[in-house]
Amino acid sequence: MSAVARTVRPFASRVLSQKLPLASCASRISPALGFPRGSVRSFSQSPFWQVKKYTESHEWIELADNGKTAKIGITEYAAHSLGDVVFVELPAAELEVGAGEPVGAVESVKSASDVLSPVAGKVIQGNSILEDKAKFINEDPEGDAWIAEIEVNDSAELEGLLNVEAYKETIDAE
Predict the structure, then answer these.
(1) CATH class for domain 51-173?
(2) Cα–Cα dist 82/76, whole Å
(3) pTM greater than 0.85 (yes/no)
(4) What DSSP string runs through 19-87?
(5) What is the spatial order of strands in the sheet that 85-89 belongs to?
């Protein structure tokens, strides 16, 4: 393999794996867009890396790559249903929660709702961004507006939760 190919291939793999709008980034990364997706070989990853699962009560949990910690939040559907969020109750650090137990609450102009932990674990921290800017949950509910980070007792509990396709089916049924 030539030196140029060894240099460009890792960059192309990272760029092609991102889901960016082509119009905004095509001019900056156009050389890498010439690589067809099928020709870039990717490395296998741990099955626990960035596993995101959902509950029927509209919470999500995303297991970190270490397989022990996870972030919990509400789904986009839940945030949209609640309307403008005005207050988020965050959990205290070191709080032990079981699966299905409240780990926080979200209040909006329409209603209030508990955020239930999808799995058992111990709270590491609440998302301090939401203390000052509760409406951030409406802007990025399944991203940086997570509610709590927990240390998961048993990552096997995630197997009983919904994947994204199954969750979307439950939304369509409502």
Answers:
(1) mainly beta
(2) 10
(3) no
(4) ---HHHHHHHHHHHHTS-GGGS------TTTTEEEE-TTSEEEEE-TTSSEEEEEE-HHHHHHH-SEEE
(5) 85-89, 102-108, 112-116
Which residues have a Cβ under 8 Å from the Cβ of 121 and sit 6 or more positions away? 70, 96, 97, 150, 151, 152, 153
Tokens found for residue 31? 């050389």
Question: CB neighbours of 11 closer than 8 A, spacing ≥ 6?
Answer: 32
Q: What is the phi-psi region of residue 75: left when phi exceeds 0, alpha when psi lies from -120 to 50, beta otherwise?
A: beta
The model's pLDDT over 135-155, given as tens digits with 9 standing for 90+, comes to: 999 999 999 999 999 999 998
pLDDT tens by residue, 32-47: 444 444 444 444 343 4
Number of Cβ within a 10 Å radius of residue 167: 20
Q: How far is CA 171 from the centre of its chain?
A: 18
